[in-house]
Amino acid sequence: MYNALLEAERLEMDCVQVFTKNQRQWAAPPLKKDDIALWHEHRQSTGIQHVVSHDSYLINLASPKRDVREKSIKLYIDEIERCEVLDIPHLVMHPGAHLGIGEEKGLDRIVKAFDRIHQKLPDYRTLTCLEITAGQGTTLGYTLEHLQFIIENVDEPDRMAVCIDTAHALAAGYDLTGAAGARGFLKQIDATIGRDRVKVLHVNDSKVERGKRVDRHEHIGHGYVDREAFAVLCRAFKSIPKILETPKAEAPDGRPWDTVNIETLQELMKTKR
Ligand code: ZN
Ligand code: MN
Ligand code: MN
Question: Which end of the chain has fewer beta carbons closer than 10 Å to its terminal beta carbon, N or C?
Fold first, then answer.
């Protein structure tokens, strides 16, 4: 795992997002003592303090199938425990998909699942960051109101936060096609979950147009999210970790795409408007 820290350092980043286990497998061997020690050593040596974890793609707390829901709760508990020993304050998660039982029922199941998870792990510090989704299929969490509903209905709302993904928000229908649209989106955030709940920003461009409800990430400035919209959001969320979930290949100029994307964002931030 510490390789992620070294890679981030090499790319001159001051934050990083990791999976604390294989994101496509239900069973995960427990973290070894040596690996935990190495992780903390590399946190120190790299000085990377902003670390975010992303949960497994298999977890679906809204599933109508009891066995899947139970497995998901168990795995999510494991995710939080891993964050706790690795000193990772924020765990980004996808709320879930209702798979046909309806949005209300799905959201209720998510709330009940979090109550069980929190009861099982009292006094854990890691915050769950509900990620806004693109709304593909029966996926929940593609509106700020869905996220607000979950936060307001769990027994321990102080353990909940939000991750805004710019590609997902645009695909879900939010207007990130210009600076004015992005300012409107911020107002919608203020009117629902509140800006302070947002603890992580996923800075991705979208291969698909606004409202298409498909989740396809693109390099910054190469998709349908407007450049000024990125600038408005990055300024509004100045002090929180901003994560690129764009393809990790080599750019045409031979540099890593991450370097190019960061440069693009930094240029955008510089321009006075
Ligand atoms: Zn995600
Ligand atoms: Mn994301
Ligand atoms: Mn995505």
Answer: C
- 102 is written with which tokens? 């309806």
Between the CA of 202 and the centroid of ligand 3 the distance, in Å, is 9
- Tell me how far apart the alpha carbons of residues 211 and 173 are, in angstroms, rounded to a whole number: 4
Contact of 31 with 85, CB cutoff 8 Å: yes
The pLDDT, as a whole number, for residue 273 is: 55
Q: What is the distance between the alpha carbons of residues 210 and 227, in angstroms, rounded to a whole number?
A: 14
Q: At 16, phi and psi to the nearest 5?
A: -155, 150
Q: Residue 272 pLDDT > 70, yes or no?
A: no
Token output for 112? 């009940």
- The answer, yes or no, to whether residue 271 has pLDDT greater than 80, is no
Answer yes or no: 202 catalytic: yes
* Tokens encoding 10: 């090499």
Q: What CATH number has the domain bearing residue 232?
A: 3.20.20.150
Number of independent structural domains in the chain? 1
Instruction: Check residue 13 and give its pLDDT.
Output: 95
Q: Note the pLDDT tens digit of each residue in 93-122.
A: 999 999 999 999 999 999 999 999 999 999
* Length of the chain in terms of residues written: 273
How many whole angstroms separate alpha carbon 144 and alpha carbon 172? 10
Asked about 50 being catalytic, the answer comes back as no
Sign of CA dihedral 128, 134, 140, 146: positive
The alpha carbon of 272 and the centre of ligand 1 are apart by a number of angstroms equal to 31
pTM of the model: 0.97
Whole-angstrom CA distances from 162 to 20, 53, 148, 192 are 19, 13, 9, 11
> Each residue of 44-54: pLDDT tens digit?
999 998 999 99
Give me the domain span that covers residue 243.
3-270
1-10 exposure pattern, b = at least 16 Cβ within 10 A, e = fewer: bbebbeebbe
Please indicate whether residue 165 is annotated as part of the active site: yes
